Amino acid sequence: MVSFSDLGIGPAIVKELNKQGITEPFEVQKESIPDSLLGRDVCCRAPTGSGKTLAFGLPLIARTKRANPKRPTGLILTPTRELAEQINSVLRPIALAVDRDVVSIYGGVSYKKQYNALNKGVDILVACPGRLIDLLDRRALKLDDVETVVLDEADRMADMGFMDPVCEILDKCSNERQTILFSATLDDDVADLVKNYQNEPVTIEVGPKEVSIENMQHLFWTMKPHQKLGVTSEILAKCGKTMIFCKTRRGVDRLGNEMYDAEMNVSTLHGGLNQRQRDRALKRFTKGGAIALVATDVAARGIDIQGVNCVIHYDPPENGKAYKHRSGRTARAGAEGVVISYVQRSQQRTYNKIQNEVGIKRRFQPPNVENLTEYPMEYVEEVFEEEVRRPPSNNKKRRRNRRQRGPPQKSRSSSERQRKRSHKSKRSNKNDSKDGKKFNPNHKKKRRNNRNNKPKKGNNNDK
């Protein structure tokens, strides 16, 4: 059995891996780590969930030098915030074992924290291209000292339109850098990236060339819109952990609220949520706090969630490629899974086209939940015992009601409260005397003095 020590990983890192129960490397790690440790450029095609994070992360940690303020020495580019945070959570404990720091930066959060982290000095920076370009434009950091760049999920970055920012970032890095690229496919824009920005790379291919859909049961159920929610409830009770894909943010919010009202514990994920809401939604789903995750395609890209038994295409995907990416959330690492598409009458032509692109042929048939594979129910019971929480929503009706009520009242400052108190005390002092006039202890003395100063009657000196 090959160990991480045999691949060239140092004892401090191996010790930390053993603490986490990681003792034997996966295939992609065996193939890529030795070349990466030697400083060679690596171009690796491997599917999501194959162990890529440690495959590029361990050599990067081992080779990265201590960084100066605002000048990171290692850089990992990822397409989404969730993937950046996921990589950070995996690599940070390992990096600390060799006195290296890992920080993730992405949009949707305050710049201030990221400025502070960069000013202290970041050894390995995990970044999304958009926010990194913003920080470079603000002169918050420089990439001249970056010696190793990792491009993770390069095909996804190409699909999301990040190729221009990625090329701009690579141009700002050191010319003598090492470039490691991981992607599910190596065609089109990814091939251009390899040609223009890698120097005689070692090419490694692990797993099938395309997302494998052989271990999945593909079902296409015809139904009317009002049937969808009830069928979904039955599927969750049978299959347990499920990912549900909708086409739009509004569709995700609407379905999440409908499932909440039907007492189904659910998390929602889309680009309209802030980072804290997105992190909370993912954590609840991965840790067992929610039985289902309702998401858009873009928001769910690059997320590696284990143990998903079922994928539901609530709305049809754009094309066959999107169908494969959605469906690839289940049946990972040799496991089995079921993929169910809800087909309305007007959508049958779309799904016929998708089946042709994917290379499968299935009949459209009515829902039949009884024939689904039943998964262990312990997980489902634990989920429903938890408090059901309404998912975050950008509901249009609620926004309209808030506008009608008007803006919330501003809280008074301490000076305003003090002025109000003094004003009240002045008003109360006016009512202290019986005649309603303000009490003055010298009041009688003043009246007496005024009386003495008045001229006496009949005393007319002018005459």
UniProtKB/TrEMBL annotation:
Keywords: ATP-binding, Helicase, Hydrolase, Nucleotide-binding
GO molecular function: ATP binding; catalytic activity, acting on DNA; hydrolase activity; nucleic acid binding; RNA helicase activity
InterPro entries noted in UniProt: DEAD/DEAH_box_helicase_dom, DEAD/DEAH_RhlB, DEAD_box_RNA_helicase, Helicase_ATP-bd, Helicase_C-like, P-loop_NTPase, RNA_helicase_DEAD_Q_motif
Ranges of Basic residues composition bias in the record: 395-405, 418-428, 440-457
Family annotation (SMART domains): DEXDc, HELICc
Residues in DEAD-box RNA helicase Q domain copies: 2-30
SUPFAM superfamilies, A to Z: P-loop containing nucleoside triphosphate hydrolases
Region (Disordered): 385-463
Entries under Pfam families matching the protein: DEAD, Helicase_C
Every Helicase ATP-binding domain range: 33-204
Transmembrane segments annotated in the record for this chain: none
Name assigned to this protein: ATP-dependent RNA helicase
Lineage: Archaea, Methanobacteriati, Thermoplasmatota, Candidatus Poseidoniia, environmental samples
